[in-house]
Amino acid sequence: MVSARRPVVGLLAAAVLLVLVIGASLVVGARDVPFGTVLDALFRPDPAVTDQLVVLDLRIPRTIVGLFAGLALGLAGALMQGVTRNPLADPGLLGVNAGASLFVVAGIAVFGVTSALGYVWFAFIGAAAAASVVYVIGSLGRGGATPVKLTLAGTALTAALTSLITIVLLSDPATFDRYRFWSAGSLSARGLDTALQLAPFILVGAILAATAGRMLNALALGDDLARGLGQNVVAARIVCFVAVVLLCGSATALAGPIVFVGLAVPHLARWFAGPDYRWTLALSALLGPALLLLADVIGRVIARPGEIEAGLVVAFLGAPVLILLVRNTKAVGL
Length: 334
Fold this sequence. Notes:
ABC transporter involved in vitamin B12 uptake, BtuC, mainly alpha, membrane, transmembrane helix, globular
């Protein structure tokens, strides 16, 4: 049983953590920048100061990308675990990552796309297309789009698309060389213009997610009981599905297929929030970007003067947290 104060304490702690990580993201890196210089860059910019240029041209865009991608992945993971009633669901479950990856590979191999901004739209369209196919397949037959059918359809499509991606990459080394940098999951080399282009999709997805809390609370009771309480189960799943497509597609297009944030963050959020998805979604929206930015900062520090991509670091950060959480069955119960 979660006390009434615990979600509030968790929300405040998550907000403080996010602020601290944002500060670290602006200060820490291969070239550490004093906090005073960061403040000067924000409020009294001087293009003649090299450290300020590092903050304005590199650190701020990178931090904004991490905020957007982490927010989207955290919310998407909570939505997917709620709508499928599967505690192991993450943005890859509906074939989102596989669809985005396949379209990026096609963009590189067929159209010669080489820039991060060029990858964005291929990844977004691929993610949306794959998730749509999964939903259509999962809706066939009696009972409509049940959690089990969605999970099975997503797993099957992911396996098929992954095979196609492997075939293309093995037969085209040049495409593999370009694709591997995007597929590692990174916040670097993603400009502010890319983030701003995807911001409207993330905003709409976040708004839909904010309206889905009550729906997910009803769905958690089972379809029959949810209908008995007056919840339109089909409409609830469609709202969640559209939100997941917008959020996952945008995050994957922006930062690459980062898979662990959407899995671990909702479990940590539920440890504070309990079974109420309104609190879970709010906490996930803060913990997602905090975890992703923290992983990015650590990746810059441990391999100086180079860096390790955030998508690789986040798995090492999230795995022990998830193991500790799943030992408490109440924390992950859906």
